[in-house]
Structure formats: C-alpha cells, structure tokens
Amino acid sequence: MDIVLATRNRKKIQEMRKILKDGGVHNLNVLTLDDFPDCPEVIEDGETFEANAVKKAVHICRCTGLTAIADDSGLEVDALNGAPGVWSARYAGESADDAANLEKLLDGMKGVAPVNRGARFVCCIAMASGEDVRTFRGYVEGGIGTGPRGENGFGYDPVFYPEGNDRTFAEMSDKEKNAISHRARALEALQRYLLEEKESPKKL
Fold first, then answer.
1. In total, how many domains does the chain have?
2. 44, 84, 120, 128: which could join 52 in a potential S-S bond, CB 3.0 to 4.6 Å?
3. Is 174 noted as a catalytic residue in this protein?
4. Cα torsion at 141, 87, 10, 56 (round to 10°)?
C-alpha cells in the first residue's frame, strides 16, 4: 500500500516513518511530498488541529491520487490559555524558527509557578483515501520547564517534561519519546485502524 506523508518537515518525516515502521503494519510504501514536487504547500488556516490535518490530507490525496496522511500538532499551555495551540509552528511569526518560538514561549512563562506550568502536546492525524477521511488523536500531558534541556527532538521538546518524567522530550532517545509521544499515540490509533481494515472484508 502506497501512502504519502503530507509534509516536507524532515524531522517529522523521520519520526513518522520510524513509528509506522515499528507499528506492525507491513507492506507500507511511505512516500513524502519530496516525491511530488508539483504539489503546492497547503495553507494551515484552520482553527483546530483537526481542521488543518484534514485540509492537508484531502489536498494531498487529490494532488497525488494516493492515500495521504497529514498531521497537525502543537503545544497547549494552561498558563497561556491554551497557546500556542494551532499556532505552535509559527508562534513567534510566520517565518519563525524553533529557537524563536521557544524564546517567546519561555518569555511568556516568566514568573509562572511550577504548579501552574501544566501543558500538553496534541496531535491529530488525518487520513484521506478517495472520498473517505478519518481522524485519529493523541495526547501527552506534562509541564513546561524554565529553560531548554537536551539536544534531541525538535520544536518545544527541550522544555516539555512528559508527566511522570524528570527529563524533557529532547533528553530522551527517539525510542523513548516515540513510546509515549502524542504523535505516536495518534499513529498507533491509525495503525490499529489499518490492521482492522486489512483483516476485514472491506479493504482500504
């Protein structure tokens, strides 16, 4: 089965390919938008993670003619009323990089007591195949540190402590992070669906 990951983010591609490979769904040929250079970028203007993921998946499915998988994910911080949320990748501006987004987040959290630094990573995966669109969600609760720690991962990983851990996502190995991450949990739900479809009379 050919699928297209609707992203050109290399770190996200690497993470998603690794999780899918280890998930027990065999005979998956995972392509990316690098294989379809004529497909234009999709403007993520939805007000929810689900809206953005569905828009990307449907657009890339129509562009390539293949089953497309898209995700929209981000960080929700309680002390910031849920921000940065769907704006996580461009929190400090449309052209902002990870460092700028991280700096803005930490500036906004100055003086916030540890008990009030709760946050969660949220991921919505959308799969579009023809006219069929399905969504799968994953969450991981945790808290925000006062400064970055660790060299692995990307985005807000250096300041996010998953619940029950004293290390940030960026201090964990890929294997450790993928065992508990929001994206892994959403992809696991997708994998369960694919396996159930494979075993049922109706095939995707």
1. 1
2. 44
3. no
4. 100
